[in-house]
Fold each of these.
Amino acid sequence: MTVWNYTVWIATVNSTGVYPGSTTHVDKNDEIETYRTQVREFLEANTVSNPSYDDSRKFFMNLADAGLGGTVYAKEFGGAGLTKAHDRVFREEASKFPFMGGEFIISHGMCLPVLNDFGTDEQKKSFMPDVIAGRTLWCQMFSEPGAGSDVASLQTKAMKDGDEWIINGQKVWTTLAHMSDYGVLIARTNPEVAKHAGISMFIVPMNAPGVEIRPIHQIDGGKHFNEVFFTDLRVPADHLLGELNNGWNQATAMLMYERVAIGTVGSGKINQPVFKTLKAAAEANDRLSDPVVRQQMMEIYSMETTKALMALRTRAEMKAGKAPGPAGSLGKLFGSKIHWRMRDILMNIGGPATMAWSPDAVAGNELSRQTLNSFQSSIAGGTDEIQKNIIGDRVLGLPRDISVDKGVPFNELRKSS
């Protein structure tokens, strides 16, 4: 069956009751089911277990070549130009196969929707096709040494010089900066207004002169995060993303996308990945019959099931046309709680193997990595404390803390760095 543009298809069926090119009545679900089959066949042929970065990149390139990449994004910007119904089907089918997103979560889950929401048509045409197809990898550059939880206190500045912006400053904890082709950066463009009001967003080529990337060495031997320094970095004026001095509102939208991306990974179905990790560890250590361990594992199973249901609800709201809101913080915070609880249980099951490894090993074993990496879940994407503030303020309607710098121009604030 020919796969028609869904919007045109619906309009045709609504007016005639007949599928285009046919003389019989056809249920609109037939088109979706044809698409489902196409997606399933693609996933069967293109997914692999434990994918590497190259595997993920090849996956997205093939996805774009097959006309399936960027499901809901316009074709003129490299997407498939399909509907949210198609996106739901894709996620449902993808959840049955190994997760191929890997290092592209930030590119696809955060940078891509922000480009689509705030970019000019020229920016979308220039950048989105390569993002969707995995030809470029993007990072997010918000946090600074003196502006972590309070990102609006950032001091990286951008000054207009003719048809260019000159950027000076520093970012920290930038995930995958050392691998990225581009980054979305926020910088101060007007220090004479309140700190939230004078921020703008930019597209930055990571290989440009004036960009220095220094990997941060992690306790597990990895180098996932980075410090990034900008020294008289010049970017074209048309690399301003969105409106001048509207960067805080755009950054807030991007953070919401981030929390949804983190909190709803694998949300196409009800799943329990941490439970499976614990079960494998219990089996390997002959602890599966231990009643205490079994009780702890079922605690995690229940928590993950609840989180998956929350993620499905968040995705359903987005499919209904709602922008991601503060409810995304619920899934993000709950995911952090799951990983903190997992760490305690994993250490109980695996013993010393979850905390240390042989000095001659290149990197820690899988149990050690799981234990050590669990700490980042309460930091990356906004700390647990920040998520609680967001939930209290915007979900529960509790009164906010007193803000001593409200309405004070940034250049009059007392700064710690």
Note: Residues 6-100 form a domain with the Butyryl-Coa Dehydrogenase, subunit A; domain 1 fold (CATH 1.10.540).
Amino acid sequence: MTSVGVVGASGYGGGELLRLLDGHPALKVATVTGGEQAGRSVAEALPHLAGLAVAELTLQRSEPEALANCELVFLATPHEPSLELAPALVDAGARVIDLSGAYRLDAATFGAHYGQTHPDPGRAPAPYGLPELFRDGLADAPLVAVPGCYPTAALLALAPLADAIDSESIVVAGMSGTSGAGRKQRPDLQASHAFGNAAAYGAPRHRHEPEIAARFADLEGASPALTFVPHLVPTSRGQLCTVVASLVPGANSFVLNAATAMYHTEPFVTVLAEEWPATAHVAGGNGAHLRVALDHDAERVVASCAIDNLVKGAAGQAIQCANAVLGLPETTGLSPAGVYP
């Protein structure tokens, strides 16, 4: 058994990590930390986990000393705590799976979009934890940068299209439930405002835009001209990204089969032939549902991908990455199946 620490365990992503790790046959949660919740039990901070072994653990302060006996640490934190903790943990010999944006971008791009100088530029960017597309960099990695939830759905939709689209024409519309913003209270996340409302936000320079562009450039070989517009929609969890792009001449004949060809051996990606992806069908699972269709009149392609933002978009994908780092089957402790209705 690998001894595991979860930092930020009292948040939404951290809670999902604890729920999923409880059934993992090779990872055992030994330490949980929770910032403002330090001193409380997991059961008090996250009542839905009552009855699990982790529920009796006490949340500690998020300090490297508290995690000294952990071989693997998940950082389910904003980027600021990750930037403080990750270097110390890696230098002490732990493997770190970081769910924040701290190590997803190179240091210069990070500085431009996060408004601060990266304090650990030699490790940025870390291997990118989207196994379906960047698996080769994960084995034995000391530090993995788990993608953002929007980039996960967007890149899974974009990747099969790389050879068929004009990379100067890409538009990504993202939709996320309120849990994507984390557990902290904000006026726009209150039920009286959010439920019964839908709104765009963060455009045109949301922090996930350079992440999507950089990773697509890794696949395409050139930087795209990409517009990303996220939307907050009235649901607690779930995420949908729909990509629209112009086709290059002659691409019609193979673009519809490209996703099936790319993902037919991937256990967590299902390519749909008739039905469009729906967030209700992936809730609670580590699966991604994808469909590609042609708009013949406009000579464009439409690709839509649905995930659970807290599972395939965060905790589940982090565990998938940990499995890859440790040489375990990526499916260990995970299922693509959602909970419906």
Note: The chain has a mean pLDDT of 95.
Amino acid sequence: MIIMKVKGEKNITWPEARHVLMTKEKEQELGYEQKRALEHLNKFSKMAKKDLKELVDSLSRIEKLNDRHIATIISFMPSKKEEINMLFANEHIILSDSDKSEILKLIKPFL
């Protein structure tokens, strides 16, 4: 059984998680859950690092969004306002229609 130590916690996007697991896979054999997670991320998260940084920087300009919100948005890449509503249904944040439109405008080139 492979055991990895938790060194800390940080909200990251699916593309970042994919990169972390791919790096770990080169260093050592991944555990069952890590292999399944990497398979899932390879299937649903193909954003390049350059694009990821650009999108994170763009979304960071929306003042209401924190790191966790940005990670959620990038991980799920919503394409409609209704999808943004679902992502933030249990959050203590109120996004205006203009905020949602701005998010969708920023995401669109990366879909």
Note: DSSP finds six helices and no strands in the chain.
